[in-house]
Specification:
125 residues
Length: 125
């Protein structure tokens, strides 16, 4: 049985995990940004402002991250759509087969009833 402290511990664990993930992403971003700024500074002429280079590099890195995230989400949405359409197709086929089977069974029952009447079976009076 869960107590209140168990639920709070679970929430704290989730918060800690999220905090660790955010810190990791920030750390990786800072390292990549620093290395990229150094590489760009070595190529660009000296009079260009360091702040402008940093702003450009960080903006480019953010746009790259968002572009990759967009591509990942497009793949997930496409796979989700394919699964959804597949399920609809399978359900449609299943319903069609079930309808045909039920229709065939009804026709067979009707034929059996007609044959019973034609073979001389008389209703009891």
């Amino acid at each position: 049985m869960h107590t209140r402290s168990d639920d709070e511990d679970d929430e704290n664990d989730e918060d800690r995990s999220l905090d660790l993930l955010v810190r990791f992403v920030q750390s990786v971003f800072k390292k990549v940004s620093k290395r990229t700024r150094k590489a760009v500074r070595s190529v660009l002429p000296f009079p260009i402002s360091t702040h402008l280079v940093g702003f450009s590099v960080n903006g480019t890195l953010l746009l790259t991250f968002l572009w990759i995230l967009k591509a990942f989400l497009q793949v997930l949405c496409t796979l989700g759509s394919v699964v959804f359409v597949s399920i609809l197709l399978i359900r449609g086929i299943w319903s069609g087969v079930s309808f045909l089977q039920e229709s065939r069974n009804q026709k067979m029952d009707q034929l059996d009833m007609r044959n019973a009447w034609n073979n001389g079976a008389q209703p009891v009076t």
